[in-house]
Amino acid sequence: MKQFTVLMVVALASSVFLSGCGKTEEAPPPAPAPASSDATPAPTTPPPVAEAPKAPASTIDLVASAKDGVEQAMTLAKAGKYQEALALLQQKTAEVQSNPDAMKIINDATAQIKQMMADAATKATTDKVGGALGGLGK
What we know:
Elements: H1 2-20, H2 59-78, H3 82-95, H4 100-133
Helix pairs in contact: 1-4, 2-3, 2-4, 3-4
């Protein structure tokens, strides 16, 4: 009976984890409404050009930036905001690509946050199965 319960927990945990990891597609923004013919056309101005993020120049700055990003991401992950934490680390990865030390710090943190996500999914599934079984496994 315990083997069956463990098997069910593992199966449910993996299905929850895998279904949550799919790529989500976002709908394109709606097209702007056409202007009425009574109004005079407004002068068109070019959209403001977004400035590229400034990359730190030295190796020390890159490592410090990576450590700062990891601290922020870990704070988010501890609050249960795993996707936001991973997005932040992905952004930092783009900034510090040229430094292997900074990349290692970010990659280690990414792996740790993914493990935290898996553990949380497993715990949630175990709690659900335990509640569904009404404490039969005890």
